[in-house]
Each structure stands twice: as structure tokens, then as C-alpha cells.
Specification:
CATH topology of the largest domain: Aspartate Aminotransferase, domain 2
Radius of gyration: 21 Å
Bound molecules: 4'-deoxy-4'-aminopyridoxal-5'-phosphate
CATH architecture of the largest domain: 3-Layer(aba) Sandwich
CATH class of the largest domain: Alpha Beta
């Protein structure tokens, strides 16, 4: 029997999305492909609540989406402020530095987010071109308060770049209303498509900053100058070629974004919150502790949970033996001390109960004492409470 995939990406996908991947590949100039690519771009704008943004869909993973944002906005010597909540904030800093930025980190201990005051203090010193925020850091399961952070950047005339790889289409994000400049993501998590697409919605201030660059972008594949005419052409119903689009992935993206919009963004954000609450109730009833230091900073897209006393990373294999795939830790300082469970995209009550149940059985086999069924009962009570 197939295991249930509950890692923080890739995740379980809808059959209609997978069918689009398995369909005969169209020419990238076929009218049917032009229509679906154009529609997918429009849908991406809607999912990010970003009517004024320019969407980009490029073959690559989330790291390419990060690099596209940085390569186009940063020039050597620019100063960038990184709100650092873990491994993926460090990755953003590495990319920024590689492109010549001077990076300042605002850090918090693992499991927490830096205070808004501290971020504001740095911003008010002036000189920053860009503020980077990891909406959900997948290494720690920490949710950053994106709205006040991007608003602070805007107040100080700094471009905000938000990494939504583990958040987009699950965590509440309103790009235009909050005046966020760049939202970047990838296909394989809450966007609901197997790995392979880098996705960005780039707001007007960021496009303007790119247009005003002094020097050309130092990479051809990453240059908006190559991609913008392609995105504009497909949205206008015309074919264009720069680099061969991943035809089947784009078709799958169109299907998934259509499903996401049919559910509705508010309903989708609320469902992810409900499922995350039920998971947290389950962990608590099993006597487990979250890595995020409070519920307020705990992501709705994954749980990062410490192993209890006497249990180690072998638990992940034990859970797989129970039919559910979860992930080990990723934060460099703590990675042997916790595990991660992804809960995004098509996650529903059945997945919550299956996963908490598998954890209970694996924990019992590892010698952790808990009332049999306590985790499942608490998760169920949370689901029933709505
Ligand atoms: N940012 C975050 C928050 C992520 O979770 C990930 C991947 N887990 C990435 C960036 C990088 O994405 P990818 O692995 O698709 O390159």
C-alpha cells in the first residue's frame, strides 16, 4: 500500500493535477497550451492576491525563485536586511551575498522571530534596498508576521521580498493590500504541483527597481528581461520562446491553481489553520513540545516537534513503518532533536487522524508512554470544535 506523504514538501497532490502531468505533451506553441499558460499566470496573480503584480513561471525549484528575485533586484554594494528565522533565511542571505549585497541579519533564537522593533530600528538607520522575510521557515516551522514586516519595509522605502515557498496558498498573504513587493514560491507545497516550478509575483515597485538597474543582470537564465516578454506574450494569448517551458508542469499548475481558487483563498487559509490546530492538539496530548516558542509563531503549514525524552531520529523510520512519511529536523543546531510533519495542500481531517495515529503507534514502539489514543482523541476533539 502507498504511504501517506506528510513531509513539508513535496506533498500529496490531487489526481487531476497528476493527470495533467501524464497527458500527452503539447507543443509550447499549441493554442491549447497558450490558453492554459495565460490562464495559469492570471490565476497565480489571484492566488497571491496581487492584482497589480507581474507573475513569472519558470522551470526550476524554489531556490531559483529566490535567485530570480535577488539577481534582478540587487546590484553589488546594495544593502539587504534579512529577518532570519532559520535555514532558508540563511539560504536567502547566501544568495544575496553571492550577488554582491551587504547583508545584515536580524536573528532570533531557533523557534522564534525577531521583534518588529528590532527590524524597525535597523530600517530606520537607512541605506537598505531590500528586506527579506521567510514567511514560513521550513526548518523551524516558524511563521513570520509578514504583514507588519512588509509594511515596515514600505514605510522606510525598502523593497520587501517574501519567501513563500512553504506558505503560498496556505498561509494568509495579501500581496497588494499589504504592499509587499515580491512574493516568491515553488510548486511542490501548498501550490499543489510536483516539484519543478519557480513562481514569483513581482509588484510594480520591484519591477521599477529592476528597470532602473545600472548594470544588466549577471545571468541570462535569471534575467527578467528574458522572461518578461514571454510572460506578457502568453498572457496576451500569443506564443513566445526564450527557453522551453515545462509544458506538463504548467498544465498541472493551471489545474491546481483552478482548484485552489475554486476552494477560495479565505476558505483555504482557514482550512490550513484548522488542520494545524488539530495537529497541535494531538502533539500536546502526546506530551510533545513544538520547536516554535509559541502558537503565535507556529506555522499552519507544518509542525516541527521535539522528540520526547528517550526517543531519537529513528522515530521517523518507525512512523514510515506505520504507513506515513514524515521528515527529520533541518536546523543545523538542532536537527537531531526534532521531526517535521507537513500539513498543506489537500490536507484534511483524515490525514490529521492517520498521521497522529501513526505517530502514536511509532512512539509507543519506541517506548514513549502515553494513553493509547490520546493524540487522536485530542486531534478529533479539535476537528469537531471546528
Ligand atoms: N524556501 C523555503 C521556505 C523552503 O521551504 C524551501 C524548500 N523546502 C526553499 C526555499 C527552497 O526550495 P527548493 O527546495 O524547491 O529549491
Amino acid at each position: 500500500m502507498r504511504d501517506l506523504l506528510m513531509i513539508p514538501g513535496p506533498v500529496e497532490f490531487e489526481p487531476e493535477v497528476l493527470q495533467a502531468l501524464g497527458a500527452p505533451t503539447l507543443s509550447h506553441t499549441d493554442p491549447a497550451f497558450i490558453a492554459l499558460f495565460g490562464r495559469a499566470l492570471k490565476r497565480l496573480r489571484e492566488v497571491c492576491l496581487a492584482p497589480s503584480a507581474q507573475p513569472f513561471v519558470v522551470s526550476g525549484s524554489g531556490t531559483l525563485a529566490m535567485e530570480l528575485a535577488v539577481a534582478n533586484l540587487v546590484e553589488p554594494g546594495d544593502a539587504a536586511l534579512v529577518v532570519n528565522t532559520g535555514y532558508f533565511s540563511d539560504r536567502m542571505a547566501k544568495i544575496l551575498e553571492r550577488h554582491g549585497a551587504k547583508v545584515t541579519h536580524v536573528r532570533a533564537p531557533p523557534g522564534d522571530v525577531p521583534s518588529l522593533d528590532e527590524v524597525e530600528t535597523h530600517l530606520s538607520q537607512g541605506g537598505f534596498k531590500l528586506l527579506s522575510i521567510t514567511h514560513v521557515d521550513t526548518s523551524t516551522g516558524v511563521l513570520a508576521p509578514a504583514e507588519p514586516l512588509v509594511r515596515a519595509a514600505r514605510k522606510h522605502g525598502v523593497l520587501s521580498v517574501v519567501d513563500g515557498v512553504c506558505a503560498t496558498a496556505a498561509e494568509t498573504f495579501r500581496q497588494d493590500a499589504w504592499e509587499a513587493d515580491v512574493y516568491l514560491t515553488a510548486s511542490q507545497k501548498a501550490v499543489g504541483v510536483p516539484p519543478g516550478l519557480a513562481l514569483l509575483t513581482v509588484g510594480p515597485r520591484a519591477m521599477e527597481a529592476w528597470r532602473k538597474r545600472r548594470a544588466p543582470v549577471a545571468s541570462v537564465y535569471a534575467d527578467f528581461a528574458e522572461w518578461l516578454p514571454i510572460m506578457e506574450a502568453y498572457e496576451a494569448g500569443k506564443p513566445a520562446y526564450f527557453a522551453t517551458p515545462p509544458v506538463n508542469l504548467v498544465a498541472a499548475l493551471d489545474v491546481s491553481l483552478g482548484q485552489i481558487l475554486a476552494e477560495g483563498m479565505e476558505a483555504r487559509f482557514a482550512r490550513h489553520q484548522r488542520m494545524a490546530r488539530a495537529f497541535r492538539a494531538g502533539w500536546k496530548a502526546l506530551g510533545l513540545r513544538l520547536l516554535p516558542t509559541s502558537e503565535a509563531v507556529a506555522a499552519n503549514t507544518l509542525s516541527a516537534v521535539y522528540y520526547p525524552e528517550g526517543v531519537d531520529a529513528a522515530l521517523v523510520g518507525g512512523v514510515k513503518g506505520q504507513g506515513v512519511v514524515v521528515a527529520g529536523g533541518l536546523h543545523p543546531d538542532l536537527k537531531t532533536r526534532y521531526f517535521r510533519v507537513g500539513h498543506m495542500n489537500r490536507v484534511g481531517p483524515a490525514d490529521v487522524l492517520s498521521t497522529v495515529g501513526a505517530l502514536e503507534r511509532a512512539l509507543a514502539a519506541a517506548g514513549h508512554r502515553a494513553e493509547p489514543g490520546a493524540g487522536v482523541a485530542a486531534a478529533q476533539a479539535s476537528l469537531l470544535a471546528g
